[in-house]
């Protein structure tokens, strides 16, 4: 599986989704001169624009490692997972085939206190490719470390296929 990651956004041009670009610009504005933006600076109307693509996570430390509690998931996440994962930990929701790599990106966001963008192509049995693109934005409550992550997901399917159908088929092959 090909996997591209752009930390610190040297590869900002990889982001294709207008909502993800808008959220990154908002994050930079909210951050200002601080190391991290405070979660209370987030404006409701800006989140409303990405509501369906949004997942809000709390960073919970367990056994000296961060875990990611899903506090909210938008409709796109519900469609991808065929269930509401609110209240579950991300590592319990991710497919085993992608769990270690996926969680490493979240850990990097926590450790570096910087956003991350990934684009991962996934193919179904018919060879149709969907690009699973994820923007992770770190936030703080205390000003010290990353305590919240906002994740904005976009799916791009090739050949006018439904990205949700391809993701469902790809996930069933990996679990």
Could you walk me through the main structural features you see in this protein, from its secondary elements to its overall organization?
The protein has 175 residues and is α+β, with helices and mostly antiparallel strands. Helices cover 34% and strands 29% of the residues. It is built from 6 helices and 6 strands, in the order βααββαααβββα. It has a 6-stranded antiparallel sheet, with helices on both faces. Helix 3 crosses helix 6. The two termini are 15 Å apart. The N terminus and C terminus are likely disordered.
Q: Quick gist of this model?
A:
With 175 residues, the protein is of the alpha+beta class.
In terms of topology, how is this protein built?
Blueprint: E1 4-7, H1 18-31, H2 44-49, E2 54-62, E3 65-73, H3 75-81, H4 90-93, H5 96-112, E4 116-123, E5 129-139, E6 148-157, H6 163-174
Helix pairs in contact: 3-6
Pick out its properties.
single chain; 175 residues; alpha+beta; six-stranded antiparallel beta sheet; 6 helices; 6 strands; 29% strand; globular; disordered C terminus
Number of helical regions: 6
| DSSP strand content | 25-35%
- The secondary-structure class comes to alpha+beta
Radius of gyration: 16 Å
Taken from the alpha-carbon principal axes, the silhouette is: globular
Lateral strand order in the biggest sheet: 1-4-5-6-2-3
Low-confidence stretches: 1-11, 166-175
Helix content: 25-40%
SSE succession = EHHEEHHHEEEH
Write down the overall mean pLDDT. Answer: 81
N/C terminus separation: 15 Å
Q: What is the tally of beta strands?
A: 6
Largest sheet: 6 strands, antiparallel
């Amino acid at each position: 599986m090909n996997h591209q990651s752009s930390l610190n956004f040297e590869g900002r041009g990889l982001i294709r989704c207008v909502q993800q670009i808008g959220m990154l610009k908002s994050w930079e504005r909210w951050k200002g001169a601080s190391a991290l933006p405070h979660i209370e600076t987030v404006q409701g109307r800006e989140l409303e624009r990405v509501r369906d693509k949004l997942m809000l996570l709390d960073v919970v430390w367990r056994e000296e490692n961060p875990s990611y509690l899903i506090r909210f998931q938008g409709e796109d996440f519900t469609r991808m997972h065929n269930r509401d994962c609110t209240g579950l930990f991300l590592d319990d929701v991710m497919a085993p085939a992608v769990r270690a790599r996926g969680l490493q990106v979240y850990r990097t966001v926590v450790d570096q206190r910087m956003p991350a963008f990934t684009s991962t192509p996934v193919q179904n049995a018919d060879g149709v490719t969907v690009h699973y693109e994820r923007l992770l934005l770190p936030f703080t409550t205390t000003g010290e470390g990353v305590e919240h992550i906002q994740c904005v997901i976009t799916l791009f399917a090739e050949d006018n296929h439904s990205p949700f159908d391809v993701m469902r088929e790809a996930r069933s092959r990996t679990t």
